[in-house]
Amino acid sequence: MTLELTSHDADRLRRVLRDLLAQAEADSCLICDQAGHVLVQLNLLDEDPLRVSALGAGVFAATRELARIIGEDEFSTVLHQGDRRSILIEAVDEESLVVVLFTGDHKVGLVKLYAPAAAAAVRRVLTEARNRSNTDGTSQTRFELEDSKSIFGSSNAG
Amino acid sequence: MAFVNQASREVQLKIVYYGPALSGKTTNLETIHERIRPDHKGDLTSLDTAQDRTLFFDFMPLEADAIKGFKTRFLMYTVPGQVMYNTTRRIVLRGVDGVVFVADSQWGEMEANVESLSNLEENLRAQGSSLEHVPHVIQFNKRDLDNIAPEHYMEFVLNNGETRRPSFSSVATDGTGVFEALNMIARLVLHRFVSGPTGKDAEGQQLRLVD
Q1: Which of B4, B119, B152, B170 could form a disulfide with A4 if both were Cys (CB 3.0 to 4.6 A apart)?
Q2: DSSP one-letter string for B160-189
Q3: At A58, which CATH number?
Q4: A150 in any annotated domain
Q5: Which of the residues A15, A52, A154, A156 would you substitute to probe the B interface, choosing the one with the greatest number of B C-beta atoms within 10 Å?
Q6: Contact criterion met (CB < 8 Å) for B94 and A1
Q7: What is the pLDDT of residue A137?
Q8: Does the pLDDT at position B108 exceed 90?
Q9: Does domain B3-195 have CATH number 3.40.50.1220?
């Protein structure tokens, strides 16, 4: 199934993330899905959002399995706390996550306080977006492939 | 599961390299990372053990001008091949758009190849999909070694379904067959993305891959 975000969806999601960053005094954040796709990101400057997303989704999925081992459906929040910087991953729904990066352990409380509401707001936007997909799961946009024999070339012969 | 962001004009597609332990999945990504144009790749991230065995996954983003008007990103993953990591393989397979099955051509690994392919089918079914519905290619790796099975035998064992899948002989350590398999799976995934499960475009015309 293809998930497609319009410009309007992306704007709404960025507004949610901007509010979250302001309220929680966090550095940057992104929304990703469980497959590791980056849906929207805000303020990630030094960090590669694709790597953060892939690893965050992997970490969250692994902890979900741990949760099941101890009889929980899942952990809705996963926090990795460092000496200076930390990451909080909040489940939006079965498919998506909000990942928040912040500095200073004194902000843990703020991030934990505001992340669930942000996740709920993200959930509303993504639910609408998913409901717009075609019944066979394909996108409603018409795409056209570039004319090229080879998509990836190597920079040296092997 | 593909993702489209109209605001940033970006399409993201996920490809997973699957196969038994030590078949060459990670070597494929390493070789691709070494040889692909710098502006087409991101960093290769490997979550592995001290013995360089994949523990969780390898990950590498690739970028291509494959869809008109959109930046196309391929999110490349490998799974850990060791039998005990099946839960991890299921996690990595989530949202997969295409699979490269990397088989080990050595005679002694045939059973492992078959079990891994069966495991792939089982894990896809667990998430409501199947090999029939997910574009995939098969790579017969380690063709440079002694004591390897002939290709026609490997085709018989691993590629004997109603529809023969594209297969490639490879030596991942020196790049032989690696980009051929990569380009084919990318084309298959793109074809599926554009046309959907029916294989037809927006006007109802059947799309076909042209060499």
Answers
A1: B4
A2: -SSSPPPEEE-BTTTTBTHHHHHHHHHHHH
A3: 3.30.450.30
A4: no
A5: A154
A6: no
A7: 58
A8: yes
A9: no
